[in-house]
Amino acid sequence: MPLHAARALWQSYTVHMEGHPLTVVFAVALVASIGLRLWLVSRQMRHVARHAHSVPGDFSASVTPQAHLNAARYTLAKGRLGVISMLLGATVLVGWTLLGGLDALNGLVHDAIEPLWPGPGGDLAYQLALVGAFVLLSALIDLPLEAYATFGVEQRFGFNRMTWRLFAADLLRSIAVGVVIGAPLAALMLWLMGVAGSVWWAWAWGAWMLFSVLMLVLYPTVIAPLFNRFEPLADESLRERVESLLKRCGFASRGLFVMDGSRRSSHGNAYFTGFGAAKRVVFFDTLLARLTPAEIEAVLAHELGHYRRRHLAQRLLLSAV
Fold first, then answer.
1. According to the model, what pLDDT value does residue 1 have?
2. Among residues 114, 243, 297, 303, which one is catalytic?
3. 225-267 pLDDT tens trace
């Protein structure tokens, strides 16, 4: 499709949608969604605030009133930030759609690309540039809140260990990974839209699902090591205990690893990642430093509950649908 035809198609779609009943449906659905989510989070925050000064009886022997109060304050701070993020996201979505932001961006990108690439391939270059500009602007809009979450909320409650230098390095690495992986995938989707006719969506769906499964396999060994160091679990007694738990659960793992999560946060966690034969178990170094072997086993048992309940397969299936 020539560049002028692509732009004409977009403009005709925009004009067609003005005053269209689907616009009203979209606006009503957005308001209903935001309203429901705000109601739920406000209920949660009110409940936390009401019980911030009283430790539940089952935990009174192991959790101090001050620790419980700090946890409640942290939950409320995260909740308030979540509300701001939710409202900002809704505002940006309205700006992109009902207020014509995407149409304006489309015109700017078209006018910039057409003189640079008037020949064959220009249409795909224009479409990729539009997708890239949209993703970049969306990320820039979200960036201040991401920075505040790390250097505001997490810092205030003593969890943050991230430096601004590491934050910037992570951002640059994320952009690089996004370009290397996202640009070819976007090009494939756009190409399928142009050559597969009316069933382009079925081909794009198949390509997306293959990509999703491939990422489950590649993420643990290719992408995650770009951001963190992973070393085999050295504690032999803990290894034996964990392997016994994995055996009881029927979980086949390619290894037990410790991640340097302490570079960014004092939060502790354990998780399994990967798919099929590529599964691996990962412990945060902060978790191993603070908890006893029995407590570490309990944390991992929670994560393995997702495996036993087939939550990963269910989420993949839901994503496919």
1. 44
2. 303
3. 999 999 999 999 999 999 999 998 888 888 899 999 999 999 9
> Shortest CA distance to 223 belongs to which of 269, 187, 156, 170?
170
CA distance 40 to 56: 22
Q: Measured between alpha carbons, how far is 129 from 256 in angstroms, rounded to an integer? A: 42
**Residue 303 known to be catalytic:** yes
DSSP 196: S
User: Is the separation of the CB atoms in 96 and 102 below 8 Å?
Assistant: yes
Q: How far from 117 is each of 4, 27, 103, 189, CA to CA, in Å?
A: 13, 37, 21, 20
Q: Which helix (H) or strand (E) holds 25?
A: helix 21-50
The length of the chain, given as a count of residues: 321
Q: Which two tokens stand for residue 19?
A: 């005053």
Beta-carbon count within 10 A of 53 CB: 10
Out of 28-42, 147-161, 199-213, 240-254, least confident range: 240-254
Question: In the predicted model, is pLDDT for residue 121 greater than 80?
Answer: no
b/e per residue, 219-232, with b = 16+ CB within 10 A? ebeeebeebeeeee
Give the Cα separation of 120 and 1 in Å (integer). Answer: 10
How many Å apart are CA 138 and CA 85, to the nearest integer?
A: 13
Q: How far is CA 137 from CA 26, 37, 51, 109, 131, in A?
A: 22, 25, 41, 13, 10
pLDDT over 70 percentage in the chain: 93
Task: Lay out the sheet containing 270-273: strands in order across.
Answer: 230-232, 256-259, 280-284, 270-273
